[in-house]
Amino acid sequence: xxxxxxxxxxxxxxxxxxxxxxxxxxxxxxxxxxxxxxxxxxxxxxxxxxxxxxxxxxxxxxxxxxxxxxxxxxxxxxxxxxxxxxxxxxxxxxxxxxxxxxxxxxxxxxxxxxxxxxxxxxxxxxxxxxxxxxxxxxxxxxxxxxxxxxxxxxxxxxxxxxxxxxxxxxxxxxxxxxxxxxxxxxxxxxxxxxxxxxxxxxxxxxxxxxxxxxxxxxxxxxxxxxxxxxxxxxxxxxxxxxxxxxxxxxxxxxxxxxxxxxxxxxxxxxxxxxxxxxxxxxxxxxxxxxxxxxxxxxxxxxxxxxxxxxxxxxxxxxxxxxxxxxxxxxxxxxxxxxxxxxxxxxxxxxxxxxxxxxxxxxxxxxxx
Length: 368
Description:
The protein is an all-alpha fold. The chain is about 65% helix and about 0% strand.
């Protein structure tokens, strides 16, 4: 693949404008909601009133002014604990509050950044979680705008990241998957522009944020194998894979295997999770509507991918289609969980449907 690098022009500034617009929208929304809770940054921390250990842990560090949500809460409460001890130096204090310590601790980059690499105190951590989350959405929008430009389309299609319901769901439940997804989009943009180094860095960060992003790594590697040969593909996949393995070994060295605790609850028999969810959906109209929409989207995306088999973003996302068939009821039951799980497919479908085919991705591009 031959790439000619040019000096940045007005075209390279347009994705920044798109990202800033999305950043303003998210910031306004967040500011409004914080103002309604007396500027309590624990609003999106996902601490649950019904779950004693997490609530006791949060109130022990932050005091009684912790926003509680109904039910069992969500990912934010776990990331809060991880961000207070991202290096697992005191696992008996912090990791002990995690429901699945090994599984949660493997997802390290988001809490690592939010916790200032272990330097922040509890209140700074809470604000850090919010800041990293918002900036991740803006960064992902910027990267997706770059990808859209690389496909010959308007950078405004970058909003397919920021307005992705799965990305929005990550924000609402205090998750970190949007950071991993943003880094995948940066890797795709870097690959379009022939920047191996930045692509490897972005993919490594992506898999350390959420190990399932190895699926995207594999897809990008297959695309590179077809277009540039196996050596390039191997380099692109080996470094992220080694990073995941290395951190996994470190996690187990610090907290052990936690025998007796099931670490993976999201993967099961093909289509069983979807079938199980059908029983409950009639009582949850929103979950039913979104669940059916995601099934239709997965089918439409697969058809688009078959019709445009050389599209890099399609390769990065196609592996999430068979993954969706293996997801359990725990994921399919709630609209915010299933949309988070297949968020790359949602954005990729928009790009393939409306942006692909206008330019061959091996065309002349500006540097990232």
